[in-house]
Amino acid sequence: MTVKLFDTTLRDGEQAEGISFTLADKLRITKLLDSFGIDYIEGGWPFSNQKAIEYFKEARKLNLSHAKLMAFGSTRRAKNKPSEDENLLAIVESKPDGACIFGKTWDFHVKEALKISLEENLELIEDSVAFLKANLQEVFFDAEHFFDGYKHNPEYAIQCLHAAVRGGADVLVLCDTNGGALTHQVVEIIRAVKKEVNHPLGIHAHNDSDMAVANSVSAIYEGCGQVQGTINGYGERCGNANLCSIIPAIVLKMKLKTSADQYLQDLTSLSRHVSEIANLAPNLHQPYVGHSAFSHKGGIHVSAILKNPQTYEHLDPTLVGNKQRVVISDQSGLSNIKYKAKELGVDIDGNNEEMKDLLEDIKNMENAGYQFEEGEASFELMLRRATKQYKPFFELMGFRIINDKGAGEQYAIEATVKLTIDGQIIHTAGEGNGPVSALDHAFRKALKGKYPQILNMHLTDYKVRVLNSQEGTDAKVRVIIETTDDKGTWGTVGVSANIIEASWKALVDSVEYKLLKG
Fold first, then answer.
1. Contact 150, 191 (CB under 8 A)
2. What is the DSSP track for 55-123?
3. H/E element, 208
4. Does 74 reside within a domain?
5. How many CB atoms lie within 10 A of CB 451?
6. Spatial separation of the C-alpha atoms in residues 345 and 447, rounded to whole Å
């Protein structure tokens, strides 16, 4: 069985709080989805907004290699003929490859929302589908609220499906619109439907009960040949079924075919690229594609995966374009240290005693508030110092912060830094819009004569976390600095009850790491 992939990131996904794609965004995502092998891309509802109309106009110029562009819409209004219904006409006029329209299948909605008879709703479904089918290549019927409707009135829900079949629908898509169905209910209802309706089925699940992926995969197992969802599970309320989890489950675990099989190693890249376009931080703990999906922290786990990754990984992360990671923390064992040393290219052979001391230092430091999961550059420096594989590039003699309040609201922030480099004392000053900025400027000024390479590095993130807030202004803080240059990005960490000192520690590690890497 080959499962058809229907992506609605550009329509249902855009309904997520915090997402608003520009036309350019939508076209970029369309090309990404097409290159990944998605079969159908739902671009929007032409009747609902001008951007959707512009999208189809521009998307037709993309010369997609595989995907078909699908317009979204609803059945006609009760008072309209199909040929006069503005919604249906807008779909046809947008010239998509096909359409996916929703219709009511829950009698409660027919009576309370549409305020029409059950019989009249059947007519809406049949002739709306028939009108679109006469004008477009493919038409899918989204049976809205189908599982809730079936629970309440199974006979009528089935009648709605038959009406869509009479209209010529290519696929009947069973929708868990409110996202409240449990997996065993989805399975039971699909089995019942198949006894009454001999027609291709699809599944469209929402995630309000955190069951969207499970319900979608189970529906496929029961014979649904089309699955609808979004990249990263974006969607209204709690989101839609996450194609980034569904696709590898179909291909790698169920051994079914999709048009994306050959591109599966691009899945992690696709996930992160779409999140970047959406301007949302990636979900680090997202299955398959998350940064932490194949991360190991506990010493016992790391010891086991060094022998065989299958001991704590359900599949090879490279199959979906991800990678195995080992993080350093107070839960680490010597296995973690050995793994990271090998990964970083640091020779630790014959240094078991030093490694034990380093492990103890790490645990003590994490107990004091350090966190090396996001400060791996600081860890590498510690590792090299512990194994005598590091020679300092400079020695700090001292620094001072001067904070003057002048007339008006402006503060004058100045920092002085005193270093020795190759036995020469260098004393410089710098100004900034804050104490850390001033320190950074003074520090760079002191180093750039000897180490001009630091001029192409810059800070991209600066995070401060209060560790023991019950101590009030005496609390410790943890500072994590992220730095980048033309070769990569790295994180460093510092902890102190003095925010300036904590920042300085992270800043010094950041510069030393840059000098180490060249």
1. no
2. HHHHHTTS--SS-EEEEEEEPPPTTS-GGG-HHHHHHHHT--SEEEEEEE-SHHHIIIII-S-HHHHHH
3. none
4. yes
5. 17
6. 27
- Looking at the structure, tell me whether residues 273 and 147 fall in a common domain: yes
Domain extent at residue 440: 395-450
75 and 171 part of one domain: yes
The single-letter code of the amino acid at 98 is G
Return all residues near 48 (Cβ < 8 A) that are at least 6 apart. Answer: none
Tokens of 153: 């009135």
Q: What confidence score (pLDDT) does residue 368 get?
A: 67
264/336 same-domain check? no
Q: Give the count of beta carbons closer than 10 Å to the beta carbon of residue 221.
A: 15
Q: What's the pLDDT at 330?
A: 47
CA 140, CA 168: separation in Å to the nearest integer? Answer: 9
Cα–Cα distance for residue pair 158/153, rounded to 1 Å? 9
φ, ψ of residue 134 to 5 degrees: the values are -75, -15
Q: What does pTM read for this prediction?
A: 0.72
d(CA 44, CA 491): 40
The string of DSSP codes covering 219-255 is HHHTT--EEEEBGGG--STT-B-BHHHHHHIIIIIS-
| Pair 320, 349 in one domain | yes
User: CA-CA distance, 465 to 495, in Å (whole number)?
Assistant: 10
pLDDT, one tens digit per residue, over 10-44 is 999 999 999 999 999 999 999 999 999 999 999 99
CB distance 75 to 112 below 8 Å = no
- DSSP-derived letter for residue 3 is P
Query: In terms of domains, do 374 and 419 share one?
Result: no
| Total domains in the fold of the chain | 3
Coil, helix or strand at residue 216: helix
Report the DSSP beta bridge partners of residue 483: 459, 490
CB 158 within 8 A of CB 114: no
pLDDT tens string 484-513: 988 888 889 888 888 889 898 999 999 998
Lookup: tokens for 400: 């001072």
- Residue pair 8/228 in contact (Cβ under 8 Å)? The answer is yes
Strand 98-104 with 226-229, pairing: unpaired
**DSSP secondary structure letters along 347-392:** --TT-HHHHHHHHHHHHHHHHTT---SS-HHHHHHHHHHHTT----
Structure-block tokens of residue 319: 């199959």
Same domain, 154 and 299: no
In this structure, are 247 and 163 located in the same domain? yes
